[in-house]
Amino acid sequence: MHEELKNSYEEEKDAVYNRIAELESNPGKHRNILSNHIYVPRLNKTVREIKVHEEIYPLENADLDEQIDELKDSVEKGLDHIETYRTSIETLFDEEYNVAQMFKLLGEI
To answer: How many domains is the chain built from?
Structure first.
């Protein structure tokens, strides 16, 4: 479980770094973000540079017991739903078989 969390953390961290690199390398492309934060009647501003100051802390010292318990609960609920679906489908097939048997019996009479 811990290895899966570590891998997921690394994937998310890489995605954040990739997005930061994209923002910093194409600042003009993200001019629309400026309009969300500044009221300008005519948005004739140019974005020349974006610098992101990030600090992503390592996962090693994180207390993830609560998240791990939530994940386990989620998996158990998912398995319960799958079991419910399985038994419902089996019941449906049993009922369909019973109906087919009734029609077969009627055809023999």
So the answer is: 2
